[in-house]
Amino acid sequence: MPDAAVTMDRIVSLCKRRGFIFPASEIYGGIANTYDYGHYGVLLKQNVIAQWWKAMIQERDDVVALDSAIIQHPSTWEASGHLAGFTDPLVDCRTCKQRFRADHVGELQCGRRPSKHPGEDAQCDLTESREFNLMFETTIGPIREFGSTVYLRPETAQGIFLDFKQVLQFARRRPPFGIAQVGKSFRNEITPGNFIFRTLEFEQMEMEFFVPPAEAQHWYEHWMKERFDWYVRLGIDPEHLRLRAHDADELSHYSSATSDVEYLFPYGWGELEGIANRGDFDLSAHARVSGEKLEYVDPQGGERYIPHVIEPAGGVGRSMLAFMIDAYDEDELGGEKRTVLRLHPALAPVKVAVLPLLRKDGHPELARSVYEELRRHVKAEYDDGGAIGRRYRRQDEIGTPFAVTIDHQSVEDRTVTLRDRDTLAQERVPIDGLAQGLQGRLDPHG
């Protein structure tokens, strides 16, 4: 289990206090499980996405990028099986008027008696279970009654399958190769919850890896290890991660095998990312409905086949939440409790803070000069508000790895104090070469 100091309440409080994440539409009372990302949340989220792209594109030469449309042709969802099969079982309670996923009632709280599960209290009156489609429906056209019914995508994957033929031509790739994208998806969840773990709109990081059918198992195992190791490389304790294979009754309609990278959240194990062997289900289904041949033809031997697909699909919000929880720590400094996010430097929203000790005696001018130079190289922040100790605490809470303090000696000899967030070590270093030195500390393997 993550450190006992970590609770969801503390994570939610830190996120709101420091402007990472907070409820959307709050002036109107909010809307269930919909959140806005503030300045530091945007920076952290973009860093998570950047590291994913780095792992997919920069460090490999067998994956290309795509950004497909959120609204696709309605036949997309007929072919994919989402219209018929993308459902959850729903029950209503006639007493408390709440709705619950029928397969999750053993994990949920009763609307009247939170200490019990739905259906356990004598007053509970649950309806029979019925299927509930998770796709958001809308219309194209100015008049709803005469418009075309379309859907907000529930996953980014289908856009990749629709563009398979196009990408195969312009990317000059042959299987095995992948198509990756990051984008918003939308699901009308019955019981969203646990902060940003399950929300109505969310960003996905998905990659469809197209392989010769005989190689599918090899690549399935390859991507399970690759994706597990990615989280470890970015700072998550491997003891807080596990790979869990789906039982037969858990498998999606398109999958012959799926394993989840799960993280031990304060409330228990939860999925960060699924790695699925989708076989040739999607390309075959779209070929059948569209009438287009979605196959690969070997230019040498002329062999034709529909590639099988291995899909690693992760959530940006879930990954971000796991990184924050695993980085969260509390210790004592100078008799006061210190909250610190020990984020991996690559993920930290701000890499270095520049802090003038005083607002006089030339400190601000020199500090500003140092800041202007540093921000040309790394994400830096200038902070001159409040006592120096309080400013250190602020930066610790948002996960800033280093702080540079400008004092009287800095004005005299152009040296600064460099403070390390994790060790609290402070050393005197020259301003000249500071940016390069920091880059080396932030990325020692750079």
Keyphrases for this structure?
Rossmann fold; 13 helices; 446 residues; 29% helix; BirA Bifunctional Protein, domain 2; globular; seven-stranded mixed β-sheet; alpha+beta; 28% strand
Task: Describe this entry's structure for a reader.
With 446 residues, this protein is an alpha+beta fold. The protein has two domains: 8-71 and 153-324, 2-Layer Sandwich (BirA Bifunctional Protein, domain 2), CATH 3.30.930.10; 350-442, Anticodon-binding domain (Rossmann fold). The protein has 13 helices and 23 strands. The strands form seven sheets. Strands 3-9-10-16-13-12-11 form a seven-stranded mixed β-sheet. It has a five-stranded mixed β-sheet with strand order 20-19-21-22-23, with helices on both faces. Strand 22 (415-420) and strand 23 form a beta hairpin. Helix 2 packs across helix 9. The longest helix is centred in the first third of the chain and has 20 residues, at 39-58.
